[in-house]
């Protein structure tokens, strides 16, 4: 049987991808750049024909059409050579955009240089690079664009106006050059910053989704374990009764006495395990889906308990019954991240308090650490904002917590509380929900 299984395993092929890594992980699809180039080719072709036959400019039409048809040929070759889904790595995309800059420079050389209004199109490849490629690629393309524009100041064929042409002063042409360079620099930096912020936010949200998925899996396992323990309780009770009856009927000096005693002890152990798994503070099966706010906070504390730091939990509205809330993985994971963060900065104590009124439910987490620096306080909760530089922290824990808690309808605020002497006593994070959102008893 083992030999047959081994033979079968040899016949199952490994699923491998024959596609290069750049086809899957590149920052941009080749098809995107090809489509952009088709648009540019169409615009260049129409502009040349309109200037020559519409406005009567004596352009070197034959020479000017050479770089245009070269781009046409390049697009056709790329379309036949590569599939539409191919993705370009950073280097290849830089090369394609550099070609577009050089092709535009050749066209401008034949049609007036920087005195041609279409010289502003130097901005396009650099801006595209700033939004999708690395900063190094954008610097390379920006340098190529500046070199091309600088060459066109001194080397170009005059724009053949039908009235004899306009000889623009060198100072004016240099002003056009400066405007292009400054505009290119500003747009590239601005586009890169915006795109970088978008990428950082996307990565942070992906990390949030992974944390939430993990908490949901753990929550599902907890519910499954409790449900299994509940269902197994009856048959195990029957086994326990039968084992005890056997123990009463078997003589103490019998050869089976030791085995029966072992059976009884193991069934008792199983009962203890199932009791622990199915512990139900509510007294009914709703504990698999419902809990009190204190129960959720206790679950968050247990997820990241620190032996070195005391975590103290107290309720501030013990005179009225607690709100009945759903067991939310988002709330548990979010509170766990905040409590863990507080424990990392605390000297000896993290105080977690729960308060509720007729209008809202509030959980406050305080620590006795140094507090939140004022220069970080305003941006705390954004991705990659952290004051822990020495332990490799990425600054995503608070962002993930804030995002998860706000998804449940909570409002998260950060600050520092002050001791009776007016000094900062540590960090304080308050999470407040409208009671109508969480409390199942009034929904």
Write the layout of secondary structure elements.
Layout: H1 2-11, H2 22-25, E1 28-29, H3 30-54, H4 61-81, E2 87-88, H5 90-110, H6 123-132, H7 135-154, H8 170-249, H9 257-277, E3 290-292, H10 293-303, E4 310-315, E5 324-326, H11 329-345, E6 349-356, E7 360-367, H12 374-377, H13 397-407, E8 411-418, E9 424-434, H14 435-438
Parallel strand pairs: 4-6
Antiparallel strand pairs: 1-2, 3-5, 6-7, 7-9, 8-9
Helix pairs in contact: 3-4, 4-5, 5-7, 6-7, 6-8, 7-8, 8-9, 8-11, 8-13, 10-11, 11-13
Protein architecture, described:
The protein is of the alpha+beta class and 443 residues long. It folds into three domains: 22-168, no CATH class; 218-281; 286-442, Heat Shock Protein 90, CATH 3.30.565.10. 58% of the residues lie in helices and 12% in strands. The protein contains 14 helices and nine strands. A five-stranded mixed β-sheet has the order 4-6-7-9-8. Strand 8 (411-418) and strand 9 form a beta hairpin. Helix 6 packs antiparallel against helix 7 and helix 10 (293-303) packs across helix 11 (329-345). The protein is elongated and about 120 Å long. The protein starts with a helix and ends in a 5-residue tail after the last helix.
